[in-house]
Amino acid sequence: MEAELREFERDADAWFAENTPGEPDFMLPLTFMEVGTDQQFEFLREWQNKVYSAGYLGAAWPKEYGGGGLTQKHQDIATRAMKKYRGPIMLNAIGINWTGPLILDIGSEAHKQKYIKGILSAEDIWCQGFSEPENGSDLGNAQLRAVRDGDEYVLNGSKIWTTHGHYAKYMILLARTDLDAPSKYAGLSFILTPMTVPGIETVKIKKLTGEHGFTQTFFTDTRIPADGLMGREGEGWKIAMQTLEYERSARGGQAGGYVLTEVDPLEILQLASKAKRDGQSVLADPVVRDKLMDFVIDAQAMALNGKRARISPLVRDCPQALPLMSKLTHTEFALRINEFAISLMGTKGGYYVDEPNAIDEGYWHRSYLNAFSATIGGGTSQIQRNIIGEHALSLPKTR
Amino acid sequence: MKISTEIGITEAQIDLLDVAENFCLDHSPIEKVRALMEDDLGYDPEVWKQIGELGWLAVAIPEDYDGVGLSLTEVVPIAEQMGRYLLNSPFISTTLAAQALIMGGTDAQKKSYLPQIVAGKAATLALSESNGDWDLNNIDAKATKDGNGYVLSGTKTFVMDLTSAELVVISVKLDDAVRLVALRGDQISQHAVRRERIIDEVKRSYELTLDGISVSLDQFMNENATKATLGHIHLAANLLGSAELCGACKSTIDYTVEYLKTRRQFGKLIGSYQALKHPTVDAFVGYEKARSLLYAAAFCFDRQGEGEVATRMAKARADQALSFAADRAIQFHGGFGFTYDCDAQLYRRCALFHASQYGDAAYHKRKLADLLF
Lengths: 399, 373
Known about the structure:
The complex is a heterodimer. By secondary structure, chain A is an alpha+beta fold. Chain A contains 11 helices and 10 strands. Chain A folds into 3 domains: 2-125, Acyl-CoA dehydrogenase/oxidase, N-terminal domain (Butyryl-Coa Dehydrogenase, subunit A, domain 1, Orthogonal Bundle), CATH 1.10.540; 127-247, Butyryl-CoA Dehydrogenase, subunit A, domain 2 (Beta Barrel), CATH 2.40.110.10; 265-392, Butyryl-CoA Dehydrogenase, subunit A, domain 3, CATH 1.20.140. In chain A, strands 1-4-5-8 form a 4-stranded mixed β-sheet. Chain A has a 4-stranded antiparallel β-sheet with strand order 2-3-7-6, with no helix packed on it. In chain A, strands 9-10 form a two-stranded antiparallel sheet. In chain A, strand 2 and strand 3 form a beta hairpin. Chain A is globular and about 75 Å long. The mean pLDDT of chain A is 93. Helix content of chain B is 51%, strand content 13%. Chain B contains 12 helices and 11 strands. The longest helix of chain B has 35 residues, at 226-260. In chain B, helix 5 packs antiparallel against helix 7 (226-260), helix 7 (226-260) packs antiparallel against helix 8 and helix 9 (306-332) runs antiparallel to helix 12. Chain B has 3 domains: 11-121, Acyl-CoA dehydrogenase/oxidase, N-terminal domain (Butyryl-Coa Dehydrogenase, subunit A, domain 1, Orthogonal Bundle); 125-222, Butyryl-CoA Dehydrogenase, subunit A, domain 2 (Beta Barrel), CATH 2.40.110; 227-372, Butyryl-CoA Dehydrogenase, subunit A, domain 3 (Up-down Bundle). In chain B, a hairpin with a 2-residue loop joins strand 5 (167-174) and strand 6.
């Protein structure tokens, strides 16, 4: 086994060394949530497809559904090689990171046969229909109606912040199937929904960066096959929560790769070494040094948290704590380090994307503004603190 | 400078973590901690004896001197649990003095003292002075040639557990070079010792006046190892300090959470209010990060360079984590938090004391910045 893994590692390393594309002449998105142009979309779709075809995505997923049939160790090796050569992100994040694992865990045989391969190959792009204009953090109050009519559901309502809404072939949809349920949660169902049927309209939303990244999605008497129901009617909330655990990496089974580019504090160091203040390098400023050190230590602590989570004697007081706080710590870190990067630039902190004088083509500015997508999406940082407080520390619920 | 991203745990650490947790839980209930705070000695001699019998003093001492032959890596879980249950004893000061001997003692000194420490004798360090500098090389105490021997002068501060120590490793200047001297407890008259009032009332610290103490040449430690020894002590003290801070931080959070789960105001448990819940979670996140850094530092402590980086990171975050957690613990206990009876103050004082010894977070971040960029 060890020898076989080493060989796999050598092959993966060689493959990514040869096949990782260089920077295209347009700016690539930093995260899967920021795909704003068709050019970016096609580039990333082709890259994911190539990685999958080479056997380096979904390596640990079952072979009969399109996976590699190998082990998680194999996939981890492939992902490390991808990181080493700084390959572009995986595009079909909602498919590979949360829909895929969910279908493999609780989906029917037909679901697995139908969806898994397309998720990995990026042929079938997935989006998520959870948030609504009036129900964001209070997700359990979602109101989009799904009424059963024979072999179909009829949908009416609207979802918002639909990443890849414009491109997606399928959606994981949280819909209200029962208005008379004993609680708001019990009236929800979880449905795998085609996006290419009549009665669905996607309207692009312009983000704070000025780019397009997601849509509002309108459903008007939309008829979809009822066989997309996951679990049973009324189990939607439970399944949505399971989905969010995949999203927040609190539960494993993802196909591999990465869907966000993480900022390495050492990149900030490079940036800082170029920036001047009063004729001197900003790196000579003790306040800058102190702040930079905080980022270096935090990045180190987060990486170590991830490793310690797997050392059971060191997490026995509260085994779920480290996975639960992973989303909060990483997304807040990304926000703050990008903000810090801009603060180092002096006058050039005032430039933005497409300005030729901007440092790194405005990368840091765009990155900072886009970083809010992760501190807000998937449960805001404030909701994360409620979750950690209630689940890891057993504090009383906030309602 | 390389940053190690490794973390692991040894079999011995797993065992010691278990045993230490149970021992400290059993032998240091908070009522006993409170009682010992009023006691002049400040610890329970019977507990100290048992610590010796458990072999914890021998853990990081080489087998050649009757020790177990492990390292400070394995002392970390012990120090962490002592910090968690505020169990005071000369364990940390003795362990650090033993490290000074291992690194900088002559063969004769090692042979003489290390087996005694293994057998349960206490020892300590006398390195700080009234200038308050964390740089252990910045000292004024002196040794002056006097006939066949040397006479000492000057004053050392923050000598922990001095009245129990049978060996005191002191630093003095001899001909302008810093030297370490292995002073026997019986060379110190009780008039030379004054108990210091320190912010952490669980611990015991003393001022030591060296004036007039005579020492022989063979009490000087290895001249060529002074710099390395002081560097090692600085890092070792910070490693074990981080462990105590992390342990105390765990207790602080548990203590706060317990109150947030039982205290009601406006008809609700106060832990349901986000104004209290969210900072408590932030304290918890700070603790978990600090603990990861601690066990990573323990894991690579013996590696040149990487050990220093990891230890300074651990101390910086452990200091910040407990300072924040205990500060909020006082605040969130409301009026009770302002009283002496509320344990939150014990933890806040613990953090303040550790920040004052061997460098606080800002100091270590500056050192790290100099090492890394």
